[in-house]
Amino acid sequence: MNMSFRRISASDADSLIRFLTSEDWPFHVVSQVDRETAGQWVTEGRFESEENRSFWVVDDGAAVGLVRLMDLGDATPLFDLRLRAADRGRGVGAVAVAWLTRYLFEEFPDVRRIEGTTRQDNRAMRRVFVRCGYAKEAHYRDAWPSSGGEVHDAVGYAVLRRDWLSGEVTAPQWNDEPCE
């Protein structure tokens, strides 16, 4: 792999629409994006605005994925990652999450933590979170609708700046329910 990340610009609108409409995104709420929806997302600033930045994931000169960073004015930004089907399972996700984590902590000094959420059955993304130093912090029952009408559990992960700096992962304190 020879990966790099290139920020999306206004001139990328057509390429972005083609990318979004050319694949199925099985672990996204909208798994099949039509051209009209993709165009609307681009126009409304979902990928590039004051609160959002997006980057092509480039491997050997070809765009193989898309990283979208959201809530950049907040101390806890979120991200979305989309990889082409042909490039899943090659380690691209782990490289992308490691890159975006470093980028957010280095570019935004007020960021304390970075969050990401995925469906419970997206085992590959869950492994990426753990591999990249993110801790499981939440399990949301029946929280993720799919285009087929099913509802899935969602799982939330986050990395703290202090954990990223130390290379240690601190687990949430799960057994803190008040006694009756």
TrEMBL record:
<dbReference type="InterPro" id="IPR000182">
    <property type="entry name" value="GNAT_dom"/>
</dbReference>
<dbReference type="InterPro" id="IPR051908">
    <property type="entry name" value="Ribosomal_N-acetyltransferase"/>
</dbReference>
<feature type="domain" description="N-acetyltransferase">
    <location>
        <begin position="3"/>
        <end position="162"/>
    </location>
</feature>
<dbReference type="GO" id="GO:0008999">
    <property type="term" value="F:protein-N-terminal-alanine acetyltransferase activity"/>
</dbReference>
<dbReference type="GO" id="GO:0005737">
    <property type="term" value="C:cytoplasm"/>
</dbReference>
<dbReference type="Pfam" id="PF13302">
    <property type="entry name" value="Acetyltransf_3"/>
</dbReference>
<dbReference type="GO" id="GO:1990189">
    <property type="term" value="F:protein N-terminal-serine acetyltransferase activity"/>
</dbReference>
<dbReference type="InterPro" id="IPR016181">
    <property type="entry name" value="Acyl_CoA_acyltransferase"/>
</dbReference>
<protein>
    <submittedName>
        <fullName>GCN5-related N-acetyltransferase</fullName>
    </submittedName>
</protein>
